[in-house]
Design a protein that fits this description.
Blueprint (H helix, E strand, L loop, with lengths): L17 H23 L22 E6 L3 E7 L6 E5 L4 E6 L1 H13 L1 E6 L10 E8 L4 E12 L2 E7 L5 E8 H5 L22 E7 L5 E6 L2 E6 L3 E2 L2 H13 L2 E4 L6 H4 L8 E8 L9 E12 L6 E12 L2 E14 H5 L23 E5 L21 E6 L2 E5 L6 E2 L2 H15 L5 E4 L15 E10 L2 E13 L2 E8 L2 E5 L5 H11 L1 E2 L2 E2 L10
Antiparallel strand pairs: 1-2, 1-6, 2-3, 3-4, 5-9, 6-7, 7-8, 8-9, 10-11, 10-15, 11-12, 12-13, 14-18, 15-16, 16-17, 17-18, 19-20, 19-24, 20-21, 21-22, 23-27, 24-25, 25-26, 26-27, 28-29
């Protein structure tokens, strides 16, 4: 028998069976009883998490002391002058050395995030540990924690027990085995930067490569690098990028705790190969005076019989005017020989590959004449005076005009316009295959003399404003020839391929001619 309940809401009819009513009453009664039980039962207090670390923010952490029984004692503290966190190993009396901030922050964060659960415990209930590491966090309130690293390692993770403020409670955590290893006596050095040049290169202001003679010094002014020794010339941007990549990739294959004496290390000679890097720093952001942190890497003797590694001695100091303060080192490392040998210390490696430091559009013209005289000489032309032995070629629209006294100005022959443009491109735009620096030797002794020399070219920024002089020649290299461009104390070498017409053109303008020089021989009435 069914009971029907009818309604007219929304024009619909609702029908409920007797069986459905009974089920609804039972469910309602059950929910009510459950609610009553919950309200009358006492609430079980959950285990509250333990804030066992002070912070993972190095800005608020004043220092960290670490003790690993039985003998390891070390401390981490920030250095205001360098901006580095420094590690001091008191147990070995090891010199101070920078700690990677990312390593330090990362380790604190990983340990903080790995806290699994809080448990009641009593003394002796924690399984036997590999060692108990005591950490003292220096901050507004000093907090000490003891981390017991357990011997098990399952799936690359290790269990650690971390003390809390309540001696009966501790945190059980699962750490990556490599992270847990840094909390054991054998892993303390994993906190350190193992780069012989540990500072980042963003603030680098100068560096010296004294790996061979002559030493190369390169200085940065704003965003531009300039080689200042053994010659002064703009540096090659690409070469500097390679150099910094090589220096930053250096890593210690081994740390030498008890190094031999300086003679055995091979660093007692004043001529020991050295790399020095200067970085500008301020003690605080508002201080206008900048000091210089100087990192020195001295390359020593081979560290193994096969000579695959080499000793290096590293140290750094803060130099402010006449005041010098030692920051870290000396530390002895072993570095792979191949990585050190890859650093090119030839001055020409870092010289800009363009012969003339003038943008191609700014080179309004040039003059050329037969080779001879001193290479560094740039004529001081005035007014419309042009030396009788020179021919001046000046841009005129899409072509060039020729000034070749005593002939009147004339247009450069149309078939020579591309050759004139090619000469400017060669000197102002084309990168040389290599650059050789002739340091400490007189220019005359190193000139490209005839018959190798073809022409002396003077590049002009304005029609009568010479800015650079170059001697162009064709010299033998191996089984073939290369174009050599000599500018004061350096020579650049270029492939001849594609430039044979340019070489022939220069020869035709500066080679011997009947009745004297041929520099005035040009099309368009310049005879």
């Amino acid at each position: 028998m069914e009971s029907c309940v009818s309604g007219t809401g929304h024009g619909r009819k609702l029908t409920v069976t007797r069986k459905g009513l009974l089920i609804l009453l039972v469910v309602t009664l059950g929910l009510g009883l459950a609610t009553l039980v919950v309200l009358r039962s006492p609430v079980k207090a959950a285990n509250a998490p333990v804030d066992w670390l002070v912070t993972t923010d190095l800005q608020t952490l004043k220092g960290l002391e670490i003790e690993m029984p039985p003998a390891v004692r070390a401390s981490f503290s920030p250095d205001r002058s360098s901006g580095e966190w420094l590690l001091r190993r008191e147990d070995l009396k090891r010199p101070v050395w920078p700690v990677g901030q990312s390593n330090l922050k990362g380790l604190l964060r990983l340990v903080q995030e790995s806290a699994g659960r809080v448990e009641e415990t009593r003394g002796g209930e924690v399984p036997a540990a590999v060692g108990e590491t005591r950490l003292l966090f220096r901050g507004s309130d000093d907090i000490q924690r003891v981390i017991s690293v357990l011997p098990d390692a399952i799936g690359g993770f290790v269990t650690v027990a971390i003390s809390s403020d309540d001696p009966k409670r501790h945190v059980i955590a699962r750490l990556d085995a490599s992270v847990a290893g840094t909390l054991t006596p054998g892993g303390i050095d994993a906190w350190r930067k193992l780069a012989p040049l540990p500072r980042e290169g963003a603030d680098t202001t100068a560096l010296t490569l004294a790996l061979r003679r002559p030493a190369v010094r390169i200085v940065r002014s704003e965003a531009k690098w300039t080689v200042t020794d053994p010659v002064k010339h703009p540096a090659d941007h690409e070469a500097m990028g390679v150099l910094f990549a090589q220096l930053s990739s250096l890593r210690a294959a081994k740390l030498v705790d008890d190094p031999p004496d300086a003679a055995t290390l091979g660093v007692d000679d004043p001529t020991t190969p050295t790399i020095e890097v200067w970085s500008g720093v301020r003690r605080n952001p508002t201080d206008p005076d900048r000091g210089q942190i100087v990192e020195r890497v001295r390359l020593g003797a081979p560290a193994d019989v096969a000579r695959t590694t080499r000793f290096v001695v590293v140290e750094a100091s803060l130099e402010e005017g006449e005041t010098r303060t030692e920051l870290w080192g000396p530390v002895v490392m072993v570095v792979e020989t191949d990585r050190l040998a890859a650093i090119d210390s030839k001055p020409g490696r870092y010289i800009a590959k363009r012969a003339v430091d003038l943008p191609t559009p700014d080179a309004i013209g040039f003059a050329f004449r037969p080779p001879g005289g001193t290479m560094g000489f740039i004529p001081a032309w005035g007014g419309a005076a042009v030396p009788n032995d020179s021919m001046v070629v000046v841009r005129a629209g899409e072509g060039f005009n020729v000034l070749a006294p005593p002939n009147p100005p004339s247009a450069l022959a149309s078939d020579e316009v591309d050759l004139a443009k090619g000469l400017i491109t060669l000197l102002c735009e084309t990168p040389a295959r290599r650059v050789e620096v002739h340091a400490g030797v007189g220019d005359e002794a190193l000139e490209i003399d005839p018959p190798a020399a073809i022409a002396d070219v003077i590049v002009c920024q304005r029609p009568m404003l010479p800015v650079a002089a170059a001697r162009i020649g064709l010299v033998q290299e191996g089984a073939g020839s290369v174009i050599a461009v000599r500018t004061t104390s350096m020579t650049r070498y270029y492939e001849v391929t594609g430039m044979d017409k340019l070489v022939a053109w220069l020869r035709s303008k500066t080679g011997p001619a009947v009745g004297g020089s041929a520099v005035g021989a040009s099309g368009g009435g310049a005879q």
